[in-house]
Prior knowledge:
Elements: E1 9-16, E2 21-26, E3 30-35, E4 42-43, E5 49-54, E6 62-68, E7 79-92, E8 100-106, E9 127-128, E10 138-140, E11 144-145, E12 159-163, E13 169-172, H1 176-187, E14 195-198, E15 208-211, E16 223-229, H2 247-255, H3 279-287, H4 307-339
Antiparallel strand pairs: 1-2, 2-16, 3-6, 4-9, 5-6, 5-15, 6-14, 7-13, 7-15, 7-16, 8-12, 8-14, 10-11
Helix pairs in contact: 2-4
The structure holds calcium ion (3 copies).
Amino acid sequence: MTALFAAGVLGICCFVGSVRGAVMTFGASKDATLFESLTGSFSAGGDAGVFVGKTLESTNTLRRGLIAFDLSAIPNGATINSASLRLSVTKHASGGPSLVSMGLHRLLGDWGEGNVMGAGAGGGQGGPAAIGDATWLHQFRPGDLWANPGGDFIAQASATTSVGFTGSSANWASTNQLVADVQGWVSDPANNFGWLIRGNESLAGSARRLATSEANQPNSRPLLTIGFTPPPVRTPGDVNNDGSVNSADAAMLASFFGMATTANNFNVGEFSGDGIVGLADLTILQQNLSPLTPSASPSLAAVPEPSSALLVFTVAVLFGTRRWTNRRIVESRRWVPNEMPSSR
Ligand SMILES: [Ca+2]
Ligand SMILES: [Ca+2]
Ligand SMILES: [Ca+2]
């Protein structure tokens, strides 16, 4: 992984269409090859290529690619609309098939990239695996094993495509399952392990080398394009996060009045950024009151009197009630010892 691509995000494109959606592109955060091996001795996470498919070797013929992306730039709560992946083909076996099928399978466990360079023709043999590397047997060498040699992944591909010779691109168009994979990773980054790239494993010579994040040419590196709709912007004043600002929010703010909290904790009515639920927050709530709609339940906006007065009244009543309740609890506790029977 190059430093340039450490952050993963390559670009943010425009808002498009009538539905405000964003498009972002990502370079791989890590990519590596699983080289078939009964001893789990080979890796090449630092190489400019990953190998996928069946080679012309006499033994240990299979290769599988691993690739993952850091999606933390997509806001939490976003809705993923599309996801497509492009990889560049940089080598094919002489005499191999002109088109081979390759699938993206969601990985079920984490894995180590490392920085080992491949050996053999074009790196196709891999190099001696180092500690922490993923291999055919290991998620992280030497102690962390895959449950299944060759990697743990969903058997059903999330997307498949036909891949040509050197110089062409492998393009996985968006599918419902690719979208679901990315949505899952955005919602739960701890389970974002990326995809395993699986080729034709029955046809000798079907293997391809695909450019990685270490490739010299930036435009040949992996590119994941994601379309999404950002989460709706929450209006300051909307304490209960139901999309409108009304008396229900004022009542909630009142119940937290005077409370110290984290700055901009909307859930308790802190909108001013000072970390205290107070009059400044009440003012913001009032300024953002939602217009009354005929079907809406009674709202502060419908009150002909200055709504701020009612808000202050609401706060005063509820806050006062709470203090009174607390005081009564304290007083009742004081009374308890006096009312206990004497132990004479
Ligand atoms: Ca790599
Ligand atoms: Ca609300
Ligand atoms: Ca405040």
